[in-house]
Design goal:
single chain, alpha+beta, 4-stranded antiparallel β-sheet
């Protein structure tokens, strides 16, 4: 009888093959993750470029840049126009027609507030209910979302941190990964009453023109990234501004995860406080400059440099080599 010997893998050979495959996968996985993050970061840059184009189209149409926010209900002091009702509007809403969201813009009732945050309410009256705009603020728009940030991206239209609010609002909106640069002032109409050299591009009821940016549009930050998750405060809704949601203040530093008075608050990916810039991109965050360019600002950038590129007319012009 002729015996036919069957060829095949031995157990040891099979285990060796499996081990080789496992090693190859382990070597390939970081490269795949890096490629995915590169794609996400590229999309983030593209979002900011779209917003930069929207800002310039808005300026071309109106001869002035959009405001950072309108008639906030939680700032203290006396407003320039006390008869204006509380709007709690985020200026991003006014850019909707320029980011292919004309229908959503038309659905927005700009005569009624976007959120019901009220504190020091003697400054302005709250006229009407934000429920009229609840469909608008609860619409998720990818142009306002960095794909790298996987944190919680919804926020109550009124924030329970506000002393006069005992319950969160029934209105829930989507956050934005990108916000206007603005001084973190707690006083009403701070931008309007501040001198030109101490102004940033945006603020409550701001009305900046490109001619006012004497430091140069290529040297001045217009918008910057911030994370969805914040330890002290909360992220900002793209359509409304709630408690301490003034914008982004670059001089606070980039990617600071610790709130100073609470060292145990440190959690990478969660900014320590409101108005702090940062992102989940390794090493820094993206910034939109007034000329429409987008640049990556390293988290090691010094405070003096961040300050110089934040104000529109302080006379400090910094080379891009510094950040």
């Amino acid at each position: 009888m002729i015996r036919v010997r069957r060829s095949g893998f031995t157990l040891i050979e099979l285990l060796v093959v499996i081990a080789i495959i496992a090693v190859l996968i382990a070597l390939l996985l970081p490269a795949v993750q890096a490629a995915r993050e590169a794609a996400r970061r590229s999309q983030c840059v593209n979002n900011l470029k779209q917003l930069g184009l929207a800002l310039h189209n808005y300026e071309s149409t109106n001869s002035v840049l959009c405001m950072g926010g309108a008639n906030l209900g939680w700032c203290s002091g006396t407003p320039v126009n006390p008869t204006q009702g509380i709007m709690n509007l985020n200026g991003l809403t006014t850019l909707l027609p320029y980011v292919e969201q004309a229908a959503l813009y038309s659905a927005t009732n700009f005569s009624l507030p976007m959120s019901d945050v009220v504190w020091n309410s003697g400054a302005r009256p709250l006229i009407g209910s934000p429920l009229a705009n609840s469909t608008v603020v609860s619409t998720k728009l990818s142009v306002f979302l960095c794909p790298t940030d996987n944190g919680t991206n919804t926020v109550y239209a009124s924030n329970p941190y506000c002393p006069d609010i005992t319950q969160p609002s029934a209105v829930i909106g989507y956050k934005t990964s990108y916000d206007f640069t603005a001084y973190p002032a707690l006083s009403v109409d701070f931008w309007r009453t501040e001198s030109t050299q101490n102004r940033m591009m945006f603020g409550e009821n701001s009305s900046t023109t490109l001619a006012m940016i004497s430091d140069g549009t290529s040297n001045t930050i217009a918008m910057m990234e911030k994370t969805f998750n914040v330890y002290n405060g909360d992220g900002t809704g793209w359509a409304f501004r709630g408690w301490v949601q003034t914008g982004v203040y670059p001089p606070y530093g980039i990617n600071n995860w610790t709130y100073p008075s609470t060292p145990t608050s440190t959690l990478v990916g969660r900014l320590g406080s409101w108005a702090w810039p940062g992102s989940l991109h390794s090493g820094g965050c993206n910034a939109l400059f007034a000329d429409g360019s987008v640049r990556f600002i390293k988290q090691s950038t010094s405070t003096p440099v961040l300050t110089a590129i934040s104000f529109i007319s302080d006379g400090n012009v910094i080379s891009s080599d510094s950040y």
